[in-house]
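User: Predict ABC superfamily ATP binding cassette transporter ABC protein's structure from this.
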Amino acid sequence: MKGDLVLETNGLQKSFGKFKALKDVNLQLHKGEVLGFIGPNGAGKSTTIRVILGLIKATGGSAEVFGQNVWKDSVKIHQDLAYVPGDVYLWPNLTGGQTIDLLLHMSGQAHTPRTDDLIKTFKLDTSKKNRTYSKGNRQKVALIAAFSTDVDLYIFDEPTSGLDPLNEVIFQNLVAELKKAGKSVFLSSHILSEVEKMCDTISIIREGKVIETGSLEAMQHLTRNTVVVKTQNPMTALKSAAGVHQLTFTDGHETAAEFSVDSDQIGNVMSLLSDSRIVQLKTTPPTLEDLFLRYYSANNDQKVGE
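Assistant:
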């Protein structure tokens, strides 16, 4: 639905001399949605974000935020946007508190009780100078400033880099609050579990191209469930069943087995197992990591699922 589109890129390209950093990036982020943008370092995530932020000009294609051109209208767009990079550089002689207030002021925002709550939540000592902060504390300064702002679009580029697991959970909870409030979040990450927990839609970028977009649920047809099962009667039929992979019988009677099964064949395989009278059954759905590894496996030169 075009009306609630917050961010859209079509055929986005960016070249640095002869090197094509972005070849074909197509993204859509809707109001109240969290979009996960995943890929390994060097795949083009940060370059895409720099184009969206209007920091560099695209070589080809188009990019719009709030229906406006990201290059021509960047000043106007930034009035309703908050951004946290993966590596935060701060003014060394300012304290954390002064920096948060300065970042808010530069965004046309003010220090509010929410800012104070965020400082407590992240347990940041705002009296210390930025030059004394660890990478994680520098991230906290930027995150506190971003989450203090009341805007419609939040862009996070590897935002939890340097944070400990407890603060990662805090970040995830705050993103959930933004979504509940109808805000839009663009989250670039290579931490698959992070994306899996928070995102409605996932776009996978590989070598400058977005090669798959959809919900994790929609993409799971491209990968496999893991099954551990025990039955009363032998499961001989599994040996020739369509969609069954890595079948291992764990007893001598073929009544205990472990295998993986293509998602679109689960119904047929369950029927076969029922015929053998199931005693115990455990199935594990595919994770984003499973999907991701299949895309990036060294011998995977064709699209997954073909």
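Confidence is low (pLDDT under 50) at residues 301-306.
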